[in-house]
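Protein of interest.
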Amino acid sequence: MASILESLYHGNLHPDEQVITNDPQYTILRKRVSDIIELWKERLSAEEFDELEALLDLYGQTHGMELAASFKYGFRLGAGIMVEVLTGEEGLAGRLNSIDDIPPSFKSKQKP
């Protein structure tokens, strides 16, 4: 079995594809959503349903962005906890939201 670092290097880590809730309500809710979408498909014209699907696609994209942001925050929080534990430095958790995704040193090298 490959280490986490080897898996990361080879591009084999896909947390967004691995995380599936074990909450029993999830399956029930997914089925309900599917059934309701089918009801709307029957009620709406083909053009209206296409518009609804486009809206749902946009929602899916924004939801994916929210999940990615939550993952990054959780990872930073966990790493911050480890740094605080190992170094004794406190106050890292309060600074997590102010961390840019792109370091300032990299921003200055970018072309306008």
About this structure: The chain has one domain: 23-107. The mean pLDDT is 84. The CA atoms of residues 65 and 71 lie 10 Å apart.
